[in-house]
Design a protein that fits this description.
Helix content: 25-40%
CATH topology: Peptide Deformylase
Largest sheet: 5 strands, antiparallel
CATH superfamily: Peptide deformylase
Shape: globular
Number of helices: 3
Number of strands: 7
Distance between the termini: 25 Å
Order of helices and strands: HEEEEEEEHH
Radius of gyration: 15 Å
Number of domains: 1
Strand order of the largest sheet: 1-2-3-6-7
Strand content: 25-35%
Structural class: alpha+beta
Length: 170
């Protein structure tokens, strides 16, 4: 398990549609282990493979800081089956350090994915877990949370975003 650098806004991998995982082999298991170490090190709630430079359809969520009954959840080749409701909450993203914005998302989500053990599962959730799933799923589609903020908010962030993108190019 190695802590990997988190890809910052401006890196093209964040805008790519991630490739499906074919076989859950040692390489994929090592990637997930590295993602877990990276997420814990960054004190985040979720992390998608593109955020560590790997364009695979994998994300992890760990909301144990908010709910002690939770542990790290792994989603491989996830599909959003259904969403409902709407709620606006402030969001941040590890690829946008220090930037937080109000984002409207579905309140509830039903998702199907494969676990690290290769078992398919379906999950229907609401609240912060639903928001995190939708946020991380967007990363696999090449979408970023700033794509969902108002043009005015985006204009106000333009300087910070340019600076971040310049850092990502180094």
């Amino acid at each position: 398990m190695a802590v990997r650098p988190i890809v910052l806004y401006g890196d093209p991998v964040l805008r790519e549609k991630a490739a499906p995982v074919g076989k859950i082999d040692r390489t994929i298991k090592n990637l997930v282990a590295d993602m877990i170490a990276t997420l814990k090190h960054a004190n985040g709630l979720g992390l998608a493979a593109p955020q560590v430079g790997e364009s695979f359809r994998i994300f992890i969520i760990d909301i144990s800081a908010l709910d002690l009954t939770e542990s790290v959840r792994v989603f491989i080749n996830p599909e959003i089956l259904e969403t409902s409701g709407e709620v606006v909450m402030e969001e941040g993203c590890l690829s946008f350090p220090g930037i937080y914005q109000k984002v409207q998302r579905a309140e509830r989500v039903r998702v199907r994915a494969t676990s690290l053990e290769g078992k398919e599962f379906t999950l229907s959730v609401s609240g912060m877990l639903a928001r995190a799933i939708l946020h991380e799923y967007d990363h696999l589609e090449g979408k970023l949370f700033i794509d969902f903020i108002s043009p005015v908010s985006r204009a106000l962030l333009s300087g910070k975003l340019r600076k971040l993108a310049a850092t990502a190019q180094l």
